[in-house]
Amino acid sequence: MAEDAEWDNAVTYKKFLKSARENVELMKARYDGFQVSEHNLDLLRSIQNEIRILVIGTDRCDDTAGNLPILARIAENTPKIELRILESDAYARYHQQFKVNGKRKTPVVLFLSTDQEELCRWVERPNAAYKVINEATDPSVNGRKIGLKKLYSDPEIQQQSMNEFMDLVLRADFILGRA
To answer: Which strands sit side by side in the sheet containing 51-57, from one edge to the other?
Structure first.
């Protein structure tokens, strides 16, 4: 369950970009270049309940930089969804409760009710990206960073993220009582 303090301390996407020091131009380019399909626009317009999306991430994280612009596009296309970002380093203690295999992963994307009740969760990267990362020929940290930046520029990977997020938005809407 998300605490009210974390939600209240989280910032909007625009404010996050203003304070970001890394991956800013990359996030702006991904945001500008990503178009939501008519099918997904129709789905977003059909959302019946208010949903909050809290992203725990950092501007240094390539997975956050790759996925946050897509979440921003989702949120801007329906008044029913509010997106906020919580800096994972500044709120490391809170972030600890979302470990995967004993490690903090970013981003953690929480789909919440207006009462801060967690409805669903998404962590780190889309399924298709794991396959590419696991098959990478350059296991170095720098090689992985280069691979992730290239990966998130791939329209198919962006669409995979969009599909996974849309599934969770719809699931959250149904959990909240979509008619």
So the answer is: 81-87, 51-57, 108-112, 118-123
Cα–Cα distance for residue pair 47/166, rounded to 1 Å: 11
pTM listed for this prediction: 0.92
Q: What percentage of the chain has pLDDT greater than the value 90?
A: 75
**CA dist list (Å): 49 to 41, 96, 126:** 16, 29, 25
Report how far apart the first and last C-alpha atoms of the chain are (Å, whole number): 25
Question: Which domains, and CATH codes, for the chain?
Answer: 4-175 (3.40.30.10)
| DSSP-derived secondary structure letter, 35 | -
CB-based contacts of 37, cutoff 8 Å, min separation 6: none
* Residue 160 parent element (H or E): helix 155-175
DSSP state of 11: B
Largest CA distance in the chain: 49
